[in-house]
Amino acid sequence: MLKPVTATVVILAGVAIWNDYSMSVYLPAKPSVQTIARAIGSPVLVAYLFLQKYFIKGMVAGAEK
Questions:
Q1: How far apart are CA 24 and CA 31, in angstroms?
Q2: Model confidence over 11-29: pLDDT tens digits?
Q3: CB of 54 closer than 8 Å to CB of 7
Q4: What is the dihedral of CA 46, 14, 10, 43, to 10 degrees?
Q5: Whether 57 contacts 4, CB under 8 Å
Q6: Cα 39–chain centre separation
């Protein structure tokens, strides 16, 4: 019961982090002022691919009452 909820929280937090990452790609005018997130990349997509089944279970468990 805890795995789907944890995976859902991780994925939703990851999406927020990804949104911050994508903004850092578009806003800086020069490469010398890029953010750390842009420099190292973001593994959110990879995490989502591995945790997708738990994410779906967590979303469904939260919708059923």
A1: 11
A2: 888 888 877 777 766 776 6
A3: yes
A4: 30
A5: yes
A6: 17
Which residue's structure tokens are 């929280």? Answer: 9
Amino acid 29: pLDDT: 66
DSSP-assigned letter for residue 29: S
The one-letter amino acid code at 19 reads: N
Distance between CA atoms of residues 34 and 43, nearest Å: 18
At 23 the three-state DSSP class reads helix
Residues in the chain: 65
pTM of this prediction exceeds 0.85? no
Contact 24, 35 (CB under 8 A): yes
Structure tokens at 40: 């190292």
